[in-house]
Design goal:
By secondary structure, this protein is an alpha/beta fold. The protein is built from five helices and ten strands, in the order βαββααβββββββαα. The strands form two sheets. It has an eight-stranded mixed beta sheet with strand order 2-1-3-4-10-9-8-6, covered by helices on one side.
Length: about 200
């Protein structure tokens, strides 16, 4: 299985790439400004790091869609702004940065499809720090973690394309690169192990 990680080259991404414990997550690192040089369909999975340049994501939208049309997988982290992925329904939300320091604080999230293979590698607490927005998955997609109002922060779509689109508003590479939010590390490890296991 081959996995490409697309980055902007921002400082937090560069610091993430220095983290040796995560080198197994990806096989190649591609700068988003150079995507015209690559055939992304040669990869089984393409990871879109959070906070990528939206203008460039829209410029290369057809290349990204080609990955899905070819039966491969794309994983999107963080915000999905300006419809750079046309099937994704994104809605901004207030970010709760402090629930964990409040007495009896909580960030209510509802596990869905607990028998999904992802949950062999992850628990809900691994996926629970904060989120910047939510999604309404398209018909046929499977949400794995919902907010109390029924919107998703993590879903898997195997209906809209020949391939698989994995979408989460969580942003682990950002927090690993900046060195805070402890849950970001077990989350990314669990997700990566699931991705690798899926292709065995």
């Amino acid at each position: 299985m081959s996995i490409a990680l697309i980055v902007n080259g921002t400082p937090y991404q560069n610091r993430f790439l220095e983290e040796e414990e995560f080198h197994y997550v990806y096989d190649d690192v591609l700068h988003i400004r150079d995507l015209h040089n690559y055939d992304l369909t040669q990869y089984d999975t393409v990871l879109l790091s959070c906070r990528l340049d939206i203008t460039l994501l829209k410029r290369y939208q057809s290349k990204l869609l080609n990955v899905l049309h070819a039966g491969k997988r794309i994983v999107i982290f963080g915000e999905v702004l300006d419809h750079f992925m046309p099937t994704v329904d994104w809605e901004d939300s207030e970010v709760n940065f402090s629930w964990w320091v409040r007495p009896n604080g909580d960030l209510p999230l509802n596990q869905q499809h607990a028998n999904h293979p992802l949950y062999h590698f992850l628990t809900v607490p691994d996926m629970k720090w904060h989120y910047h927005g939510t999604f309404m998955p398209p018909e046929g997609a499977m949400s794995l973690l919902d907010t109390p109002d029924g919107r998703s922060i993590f879903y898997v779509d195997e209906s809209s394309f020949n391939g698989q689109l994995v979408v989460t508003s969580l942003d682990p590479m950002f927090h690993i690169g900046l060195g805070f939010i402890n849950q970001s590390k077990p989350f990314l490890h669990g997700l990566a192990k699931w991705l690798r296991e899926e292709e065995k």
